[in-house]
Model the fold of this input.
Amino acid sequence: MRQQIATKTGTGSSNVLAMDTYISPFNVGFGVVATGTVTYTIQHTFDNVQTVASPVWFSHPTIAAKTDNQDGNYAFPVAAIKVLVTAGTGTATATVIQAGVA
Done:
């Protein structure tokens, strides 16, 4: 899969990155670069973001309330990923790569 990028400056949610849940095994790696003063959380949903108006978002178990550069992964399927900035005026940029997609 080509890299997908979700970025958010200031508080709020980034654009949503949809994953391909039909890839097996499902493997997604990501890295987040924090610039300036920012507190962010990586979130995921199991809802189809193309058909569900208000998806339910869950925070990543280890990349939550972070203020520095972080990396992590999803070894099990999620439908979509986003960055939630909860404080600060800086920027959090997540680069996401899903294995198995050309």
User: Anything to note?
Assistant: The mean pLDDT is 95. Residues 4-98 form a domain with the Jelly Rolls fold (CATH 2.60.120.380). The CA atoms of residues 36 and 49 lie 30 Å apart. The chain has one domain: 4-98.
